[in-house]
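Q: What does the assembled structure look like for these inputs?
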Amino acid sequence: MYEETVVLENRLPELVKLQGAVADFGARHGLPQKVVNDINLVLEETIVNIIYYAYEDKDGKHEISVRFRVGKGGIILEVEDDGIFFDPLGFPEPDLNSPIEKRKIGGLGIHLIRKFAKSVSHRRERGKNILTLTMS
Amino acid sequence: MINYVPDGGKLLCVFEERLDTVNCMNFEKELLGKVQEMKSPVVFDLTKVEYIASSFLRICFQVVKEAGAGNLSLVNVSPEIKKVFKIAGVDKLMKID
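A:
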């Protein structure tokens, strides 16, 4: 199984580093741009949620690691952070049928993660959140 | 970066880059300011856009709330980007071509 890891700081400008890592991963494995974009999307949405919600010390410096694996099961992404317990799957789905005046803006990022990844699972280990995303 | 083009009573916004979280954060205030100032229908041209994140969907929401239902249209939208709008369940809230 092929594996590589990129480590980001908990700052939004680090998403540029993520974009580069995803592009390199895609090029190394000959992935179509559509798949590269889907991988970038689920990881970006995951990491933005971590940056915004996972840390009680908002100005503290933390590391978020992203592990890319390619195996028989397909592409597996693992995002690990040392923030508070945060399981994005525990959030309710947005109400997609309510009119614009009543629609809540929040929750769209998690909704996209759920829909673009083939499977998503969360576990807590050694004080860390580990989100595993499988892509088709 | 966005090119703002007055277009016969509409505000035409031509997007020139990826619409990811950081880029959206950088242009959001200016864009919403122009929408509020123009008080006219808004058109987003996504010809050069290959990627959007939920931040852009949120900005579209805010534009619809500000400009009024039916007053935001998105043109030259690639099938992949249309899919994101559809999956997010916001494709019915604005006109997408």
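Chain A is about 30% helix and 30% strand.
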